[in-house]
Amino acid sequence: RVGIHTGEVELRGDDLAGLAVHIAARVEAHAQPGQVLVSRTVRDLLLGSSFVFAHRGDHPLKGLPEAWALFSLEEGGP
Question: Out of 20, 67, 70, 73, which residue is the most buried by the measure of CB atoms under 10 Å away?
């Protein structure tokens, strides 16, 4: 299972931190084994590419005030 989000991160020693890291972990928590889920941010940045996404619903992400639209990466992409 994989969860992907993009955003600003902070480098703290050898670790990455920040809201984007938190969101990526929460997206991953909603993925099924063998599934790649991405946030709407990632899907929007890749519009027009050869990647194919399917909407998997709006999900609450722990620690965030609103539900987030999540998309699975489908076969047929690069």
Answer: 70
